[in-house]
Amino acid sequence: MTLRSDVAELLAGAGILDVDVDDAVADEHVRSSAYQRVVEVAASLRSRGGDRALVATLLRDPHEMGSKAAVVALLDRIAMKVTGPAEFRRWSAGLLPEIDRLTTEGHREFIHRRIGDWLFYLSVTGGHVPTSAELAEVTSWMQRLLAVESVSPAVLALFTESGSSKKIRNIAKDRAGNRKLTTN
Fold it and tell me: How far apart are CA 114 and CA 36, in angstroms?
């Protein structure tokens, strides 16, 4: 497979007709933008059967930063659609052989870490109250997301005490205080 054939296949498969394949091949920014659109279409599908092939094709791109960003966008979109951590774990496990082919170790680690973050998010939003040790294992990005979104007093209390930054602790403290005002 060549980059041109991969880009053409991705665009055609997503029904994206307004991106010139030659322009996308020549310009990594055009290609990266096109990949984001392809991921948006793929994530909207009910079937997850084509996701591994999509990730494999994306990750063949010689510009790893753009392809990594597209894979992360797919992870983010699917994490918000699944019914819980078990479903996300099964789905993401099917992508790992492709992800582990990335030549840049930092890109592989980033994607693995993002998967771990989403598994944590899904378990917490499913009712699990994490320990301080579990909280310390996730990124500040995920801690901030949960501090902003959580409605659990126990989770907010944990973030108030053990969040990785002052900003996260303050967000959780403010939200916990606001929850007390709205629940009385």
Answer: 17
Angle, CA of 84, 89 and 94, to the nearest 5°: 135
Q: Please say whether the beta carbons of 1 and 59 come within 8 A.
A: no
Cβ distance 10 to 71 under 8 Å? no
Q: What angle do CA 50, 56, 62 make, to 5 degrees?
A: 145
Render pLDDT for 71-109 as a digit per residue (tens, 0 to 9). 999 999 999 999 999 999 999 999 999 999 999 999 999
Residues 6+ apart with CB under 8 A from 179: 151, 153, 156
C-alpha span between 108 and 113 (Å, rounded): 9
Report if pTM > 0.85. yes
What are the distances in angstroms from CA 135 to CA 22, 142, 144, 162?
46, 9, 11, 8
Structure tokens belonging to residue 29: 């920014």
Contact 107, 64 (CB under 8 A): yes
For the record, the structure tokens of 14 come out as 């997503």
Q: Give the tens place of pLDDT for each residue, 139-155.
A: 999 999 999 999 999 99
